[in-house]
Amino acid sequence: MKWITNLKIGARLLLGFSIMILLMVVISLSGLRSTRNIQRNLDEIFRLRLPSIDYLIEADRDLQQLLVAERSMIFSDAQSDVFKELVQEYETKLKRSEECWEKYRALASTSEERAVIPKYEKAREEWKAISRKLVEGRKEDTREGRRLAIDLSLGAAKKAFEEMRSYLNELQGINLNNARQAHLAASATYRATVSTLLTIAGIGLLVGLFLMWTIGRGVTKPLRTVIQGLTQGAGQVSSASGQISQASQQVAQGASQQASGIEEASSSLEEIASMTKQNANNAEQANTLM
Predict the structure, then answer these.
(1) Please, which residues have CB within 8 angstroms of residue 66's CB and are 6 or more apart in sequence?
(2) Residues contacting 192, CB < 8 A, separation 6+
């Protein structure tokens, strides 16, 4: 790590901001990728699996109601209005069941579903042929037609109907399993995203603390050196100021002494002048006397 401590302050700041930007980019990309995965799993659940299960359940429900109408025909008067209503309900439920199936088939997307779909359609055509035969025999309103309807309802029609429904149940199970797998995948993506974000946040915290320490140390150490230099310079200036003050005092004392000497010399000169004047007076008096 010596190379970091040898970097200049600007280079350290640039390195620190670059690392933080890189971590932010990694966090953003990781969050975006995880969000897309979760969104894809949710779309699969809510746009494919749940509607597929709903269509399959509706198709199965219509077939069950159709079966009730079919068996009710056996014991109804073929000339009555009830019989006609049962036939109408039979046709309506058959049509609705086929419509629900076509809607589901448009959503089927996995290989498992595509493998079961032909089996169901084959079983449905076989059952439909038997069921149509049963209804037509009952419409004839003969003893033989009723006997045939009862035999088919309890025999071949029942077997074909159960086989057809078993494929519907299998498809429902496949879609439920796919929805469960999508939910597990979304949960796993969420946990992985949380772990990744916490890890990157921890790394970012450690890097930030390290850079703060190195940058702070790089800034405070030169400042400490500058402060020490300024302190030493201030001490030297203070010492020089003391010396100058002491010299000034000495100069002041010398000037005072010189002033005192000048004053004494001036006093002596005044005495000499007085004496000279006295001598002049004396000389003038002597001149007068002479």
Answers:
(1) 89, 90, 93, 94, 97
(2) 34
HSE (side-chain half, CA atoms, 13 Å) at 268: 6
pLDDT band, residue 255 (cuts 50/70/90): low
Mean pLDDT calculated for residue range 16-30: 78
The span from the CA of 49 to the CA of 174, in Å, is: 9
Neighbouring CB atoms inside 10 A of 253's CB total 10
Q: Locate tokens 């809510």: which residue?
A: 46
Contacts of 206 (CB under 8 A, 6+ apart): none
Tokens representing 157 are 């029609």
* Per-residue pLDDT at 258 exceeds 90: no
- Report if pTM > 0.85: no
How would you class 200 by CB atoms within 10 Å of its CB: exposed for 0-12, middle for 13-18, buried for 19 or more? middle
Residue 121 burial (CB count, 10 A): 14
State how far the alpha carbon of 22 is from the alpha carbons of 8, 13, 89, 170, in Å: 21, 14, 67, 49
- What distance in Å separates the CA atoms of residue 7 and residue 198, rounded to the nearest whole number? 30
Query: Which residues are CB-contacts of 132 (< 8 A; sequence separation ≥ 6)?
Result: none
